[in-house]
Amino acid sequence: MTTDLGARRVLSLLVSAFRLTRAAAPAGTPLYAVLCLLAGVVPLAAAWCTKILLDGLAAGGGWATLVPWAVALAVTGLVSGLLPVASEYLKQRLDRAVAVLTMDRLYQAMGRLTGLARMEDPRFRDKLQLAQQTGRSGPGQLVDDGLGAVQAAVTTGGFLATLLLLDVGMAVVVLLAAVPALIAHLRLSRARAEVLWSITPAERREVFYAELLSSLDAAKELRLLGLGDLFRRRMLVELTAAHAVVEGQDRRDARVRGLLAGLTALVSAAGLVWSVWLAAKGSLSIGDVAMFVAAVAGVQGASQGLVHNLASAHHSVLLFHHYQEIESQPPDLPLAVAPSAVPPLRRGIELRDVWFRYAEDQPWVLCGVNLTIPHGRSLALVGLNGAGKSTIVKLLCRFYDPCRGAILWDGVDLRSFAPEDLRARVGAVFQDYMRYDLSAAENIGLGDVSSMDDRARVVAAAQRAGAHDVVTALPRGYDTLLSRMFFDEADREDPETGVLLSGGQWQRLALARAFLRDRRDLMILDEPSSGLDAQAEHEVHNSLRRHRGEATSVLISHRLGAVRDAGVIAVLTGGQVAELGTHDELLSLDGDYARLFRLQASGYDEVVTR
Ligand SMILES: Nc1ncnc2c1ncn2[C@@H]1O[C@H](COP(=O)(O)OP(=O)(O)OP(=O)(O)O)[C@@H](O)[C@H]1O
């Protein structure tokens, strides 16, 4: 990550932020810009009114000539009082509109990621996190900073032009007081931005340890292994390391700012004495002196505002840059220009010489897999941990494309389909299935959103997965919230609001979710019964056997007893299909499958015969 984007990129980001804000609030954005410009002009108008009024008074001007200027001064006072209120209100509205649009665009962009590879890239995840954090307010903040800088520039430019009209020397004095301070502050803000970037890794690690210490998932291990002290110490090391770097920058800031404040006060005082001397000589009027005092204060205030806006814009630009990168990213899988419709599966799915690895610097997981999943039959994938079984499942869902070779759906390469069309024909239970903090019915209904409200289908799916009894025993049956999160204050005190399920009970719900989708052409079950008790596992596999008659399915299980009825069993070893056949064929082959099956069976035999 860098703090240097180049002037062109910064400019294009500023323009994009303005466009985005304009799109979010077509009327509010120009109105806000006008208010900002007005806020830049008002101090100038007030100073001019004061000068004319004082000069008029000094010259003994009459009531009729002075009153309009007094009224004008009063109006500038009123406007400068009301402007911040109106601007703030408008700004808040603008921010809300921008937040809705940016979040919508960000998550639409995320929706265009149809694969998994980019989601797994740590650099992408870093950017995504920053984009999520700043997407809501980033563009609005950038526009605000830009307009603030314009406002400050208008005030400064106006005062300088006025002084030039009155006395060139005074204009030079005011410039002398402001410019070095402006340059120094800009340098300081740049240095601060660099310091803040340099400590982000430490801050991330600190947040990681802090989250670990308060994580429910980690709580058991942390307590049992006594890791709390270790992680707390590590968190504090990161925190103090980041603080030490910031402290150094704070000291540099304080030194330079102190010096500049002294210098500015000195130049202003000298200028004031000089202008009073000129007024005493008669070269300047009282109004000119008042204008000078207002100009010094105005330019100093505006240049400080300018520094603040530029520093903040610098920071906002960097963050908006990440948002833009995520928002404008291309799809992560090559998409067919004219995707073919996915026909109902008739013959089967063929993996033809499929090679795959997760990244170029990682080892091959699949090295030329040839395998057919015939239509209407079940294929079981068997192999040791890390053999590549789940990887095949992910390729079948087209979360990745093979590096070499192809996967064919009735002879058509999966790459010629739109991923969402393909997935509409697939149902799956993944090894790392989701547990949604939603009701039991919704946890099942998500399997087929169009049937989510069809309670009869939801119940039937739950019955097939052995989840019906679990759900009906819950305080509110299918409408019980499966979470300890509360959604509103009324829920907080209600002990029946949320319920936590056991691992196996959650797995039954995940299965039910997949069963709701069983009208699909391919059903994938990756370790669907790993967390189930023996009784439930037996029932689930009976149910699977009964229902898979006409369905094409892929089943992964380490419990070989559960796969023995599969139409065909493939044993994966060394990234290839080492053995293929029915249970009986593989037993008579006497290879790895037979060895593993006997090993598992002997475990049970020993217990039974003991
Ligand atoms: N997202 C990933 N990025 C990089 N490597 C991965 C990723 N997922 C899996 N792998 C690697 O690919 C190999 C195969 O993993 P896979 O999950 O397919 O094995 P598996 O046969 O399903 O194992 P298990 O029986 O333990 O579930 C492993 O070496 C694993 O480390």
TrEMBL record:
Keyword Cytoplasm tagged: no
Keywords attached to this entry: ATP-binding, Membrane, Nucleotide-binding, Transmembrane, Transmembrane helix
Places the protein is found: Cell membrane
Domain of life of the organism encoding this protein: Bacteria
Gene3D superfamilies registered for this protein in UniProt: ABC transporter type 1, transmembrane domain, P-loop containing nucleotide triphosphate hydrolases
Annotated ranges, domain ABC transmembrane type-1: 31-315
Transmembrane segments: 33-54, 66-86, 159-183
InterPro entries in the record: AAA+_ATPase, ABC1_TM_dom, ABC1_TM_sf, ABC_transporter-like_ATP-bd, ABC_transporter-like_CS, P-loop_NTPase, Type_1_exporter
Pfam family, one: ABC_tran
Main localization category: membrane
Boundaries of every ABC transporter domain copy: 349-599
PROSITE patterns, alphabetized: ABC_TM1F, ABC_TRANSPORTER_1, ABC_TRANSPORTER_2
Membrane topology, from the record: Multi-pass membrane protein
A GO term for molecular function: ATP binding
Full protein name: ABC transporter ATP-binding protein
